[in-house]
Each structure stands twice: as C-alpha cells, then as structure tokens.
Amino acid sequence: MKRITIILLFSLLFGFVAKAQGCFPTGEELPFKAGEKIRMGLYFKWGAVNTEVATGDLSLEESALNGKSVYKASLIADSAPFFSVFYDMHERFETWFAKDAVRPLKYYRNTKQGDYRAFNNYIYDWDKKEIHADINFEGRGQQILDIPIHDCVCDITSILYLIRTMDFSSLTTGQKIPVSFAIDDTVFDIRLTYRGREAVKTKRLGKVNSLRFSCSVVSGAMFDGETEMTLWFSDDSNHVPIGFMAPLRIGSVQGWVKQLEDLKYPFEARVK
Predict the structure, then answer these.
(1) What pTM was estimated for this model as a whole?
(2) Per-residue pLDDT tens for 95-133?
(3) Are 97 and 118 in contact (CB under 8 A)?
(4) Of 171, 227, 178, 217, which is closest to residue 194 (Cα–Cα)?
(5) Where are the beta strands (DSSP E) in the chain?
(6) Which phi and psi (to 5°) does residue 172 adopt?
(7) Which of 90, 113, 225, 244 is most deeply packed, by most CB within 10 A?
(8) Is-contact 234 28, C-beta < 8 A?
(9) Are 105 and 70 in contact (CB under 8 A)?
(10) Distance (Å, whole) CA 145 – CA 135
C-alpha cells in the first residue's frame, strides 16, 4: 500500500483537478505571478481536540531551466514544534514549469516523516510522453525508470498553479472532473465534483466567498474510502486555496489558509 503523507493532503487541496494546458477550459490570463506566497495550517480534530499539527508554505519565483525562463514553484511542509516531539516531519516539493503552456518540466521531492524517507526526481519528456524518474521510497532503494504519461498528467507542485488557470465560469453544479497526478512510481486518476458557491468561515480570514468541490478519498490506513473530502477555492480573480476538510478513520483533518502575500490581484473574496 502506498503511504499517504501529510503533504499529499495539501496536494489534494491545492491541485485536485490540475492538468496540462488544453485538458480543461482556461482563462485568458494567469491568476498568479512570481513572488506570491501562501501559508496554510493543518489541523487534527478528534472530539474536543482541535490542534494545528503542521504548516505548509507555497511560493512561486522566476527561474531558468535549460537556458529558458520558467517558473519554479516550491511547497514546504513542517510539523509544528510541539508536534515534532512526537512525530517529526519535513517535506519539500519543487517543480519547474513553462510560463506559456504551464506545463511541468522538472520535479523534485524530498520527504522525511519519522523514520520514513522518500525521494523523487522527474524529468518530463513530452515528445515521448514519459517521465524519466530517479526515485527511492518505502525502503525499496534507488530506481531509475520511465513512467508513461498522457498530456493531462502533472505533479504535486505544478498542479497547485494549473488548477487556478481553469475557467471556473464554465462549471455547472454537479459537474464531475477527472484528476491525474504523478508521485513516486504511480500516476493517480480520481474524480471530483463541483458543488457550487459558498461563503465558508475560515480560522484567520473570516468568511470567504468560495467555490466548493468534493473529492472521493482513497481507502487506506488513514481513510475508510466511503467518505469525501471537501475543498474551497477563493471566488475572485486569484482562485487561491482557502481550505479543506477530510474525515479520517479516527477524527478528521482540516487545512485553512493563514497568510497570503503578493497576490497578482487584490484579494476580494472576503465577506465584508
């Protein structure tokens, strides 16, 4: 069974429908720019317990790859100081993607959770529809392999931005949208459902006008496979991730945005 990490919960929030350009209707302009930063808190709730156990930081900067100007996106998650005493966690995900097609070109993962380690290094070959992968996870040792992909496959960090290019105005309530992303040696395909607009109450920003989605979760050590995760994106020009809720076998996990910096557009989703 593939291990479900804390950062994978963040990825489900940020990039649950992301695909390469051309796989869904997109807006005319990118809703983000270099310098943008998003911080999110991850909370565990069980009965009267509702504690922040980790933070996730997402940032975007200009970079260069093979002599071309690209975007570099970084997603870093760390366990809270008090929680590190019981379970120390640090994860880093980075992706270099093209500015014009918003298509991933290179991807890096380094995960440390307790005694668990995972490493991914991808080079995308879109001509051959392959990922040239250097990976090591679940104690299997280093593996060099080619992973077959289709035009709509992304990775953990690139999908965080690709989803935000979607033309949300084209969605209808109840519409189901396929999801595809690669991690370790596997491409995952799942589906989500658009549930409509909602003013959701957040822990730091108050009520925020949002676009609500639901997504079935994979049965495993953390989930029972019979429930759905709920996700919210801001209903403004930025389409930033606002929050998510997911039931676990014991308790539930929630993620809520804590801080937004240097957005491309003014944040106008907060209910006044």
Answers:
(1) 0.84
(2) 999 887 778 999 999 998 888 899 999 999 999 999 999
(3) no
(4) 171
(5) 37-46, 49-65, 68-79, 89-98, 104-113, 116-125, 130-137, 143-148, 176-183, 186-201, 207-216, 228-234, 241-247, 252-261
(6) -120, 145
(7) 244
(8) no
(9) yes
(10) 8
